Amino acid sequence: MLTQRPIDLVNDRDFVLAMRSMATFENDSPAWRPTSLATYRARWNDGAADEFMDRLAGTLEDERTIAEIWEEDGRPVAFIWVGFTSPAAYGVVVAEVLDIEVVPSHQRIGIGTLLLQHAESLARERGAVVLRSETAVKNEASQVLYKKLGFSPDRVRLEKPLAPV
User: How far is the C-alpha of 69 from the C-alpha of 3, rounded, in Å?
Assistant: First the structure.
């Protein structure tokens, strides 16, 4: 049985960072990563990890933020992080899925769907009129999930590596 709870920045740090660095490694452009996950994780932990956790902590100052760990039998199997913005030019509240991760052993069994449906419900309750997310072009499973839940593309970001790969 799945249960969810608020993220604990101290006790959940290793789980969150392991999941985030693995997902980033798998989906980043080759221009951004070295050849092995271990090397990538070591470099990622040197600076990006603290930056990621600081950003997460900063968003928790907004009471609308959704930052949850989902557990099965007391073990973390997923987390979701949704931040909120209110662009003055538009006068609306936007909720953005900043991160969603499911451990590999629990992927493709519906947990991602549950996470996003839960986030959508909470985002609506907290005043959002738009729920947005971003995913890698290579992450086809994520794209299928988002489309299944009614998300559609609103822009395309392009990238060109300039250094030899």
Answer: 8
Q: pLDDT digits over 64-121, tens only?
A: 999 999 999 999 999 999 999 987 778 899 999 999 999 999 999 999 999 999 999 9
> Quick check: 98 and 115 in contact, CB under 8 A?
no
Q: Could you give the residue ranges of the DSSP H alpha helices within the chain?
A: 13-27, 37-59, 111-125, 140-148
Number of structural domains in the chain: 1
Domain extent, residue 44, equals 2-148
Q: Alpha carbon 119 to chain centroid distance?
A: 12
- Does residue 23 lie within any of the structural domains? yes
CA distance 153 to 137: 12
Report the DSSP pairing between strands 2-6 and 130-133: unpaired
Flag whether the pTM goes above 0.85. yes
Residue 85 lies in a domain: yes
CA-CA distance, 151 to 153, in Å (whole number)?
7
